[in-house]
Predict the structure.
Amino acid sequence: MPWKESRLFKDFTKVGHPATLISAFLYFTIHCMIWVLVGVLGVFIANEFDLTASQKGLMVAAPILTGSLLRIPVGILADQFGAKKTGTVIQILVLLPLLGGWLVADSLAGVIAVGLLLGFAGASFTVAIPLASRWYPLEHQGLVNGIAGAGNIGAVLAALVAPRLAEVVGWRQVFGLALLPVLLTLAMSHWLAKESPNRPAPKRWSESLKILQESDCCWFSLFYAITFGGFVGLASFLVIFFYDQYGLSRVMAGNMAALCVLAGSLFRPVGGYLADRMGGVQLLSILFGAIGVLTAGVGLLPPLPVTTALLFLAMAAMGLGNGAIFQVIPQRFRSEIGVATGIVGTAGGIGGFFLPLLLGLLKDLTGSYGTGLLLFALASLAAVVALQSLRTGWQASWL
């Protein structure tokens, strides 16, 4: 009912710590922008080094891989020492690869090394979510995690701004300019963010990692590998896709990628809000089917306007799915939200790591990006079947 939803929203504004929520959003926004920087500058780098499609995929995937693997230890550290302190250290470490990209990267190997170190920016997700989440009660977890997670919009900023800057100053200088927003965010986080008094007592690492034995954690990880993996993988690769497949200019390819990525970013908090209202599992069942159908349509490589529309809708569905999954996780793993976020976030990032690799490799083998997109669509449709088989057991035990 509208009056009930209005009351729930008013309740949301009266609880928690808005300054910390804003800080978490800004922190994740800037670091998501940094995380995909190699991908959105990929056309410039590939032209300079004359890369194959497979090499492009590897270059784009490098920061996604380390960003994924770092999420588990960073999530545990956020539980151990607090999300704010952990986030401060991560932001300082992110400065190193930006300096490397600006001053050192003079080969494909150098760019990949910079990309691997940019994984520290990708690990920011496992700081932003517990930093904000612990301030809010269960009934608002979908919305609050959706708002913090909407920092995915940083990928939009990267796709819009980085190619334009690279046209003027060169792609290496873009890494140098990126130091400025990171330093600004570091100062703002120190000023705005506060650690929640509801933070649980730290556990030993061995105790924290026991969550890996939970089958539900594994399932959440697989589902997030599709929603977030699809989002970040495409966000990093779409500039190259539009440039190679449709012959767009480097700046226009960035514009089209930004449009599609925008959908995934803006709809993430909507997904959390809808999951609070109708249930995350029910919403995910619908979304996985939509993602499968829409990406299958893109895999047929229709004309540019149709592809853009399908990608926009597919990315929107992925964004909704990201918000829905992180509405469900706190219900199941409330006291281990930091490490749960790290593990599930790692799986999501690994999904994003394999997608550009798959697209580039199959492009070299088959001559088409469509093959990889169709395989991703099949994985999405398989998730619908898996989710329906799990739903009854979840409803009986914890949902």
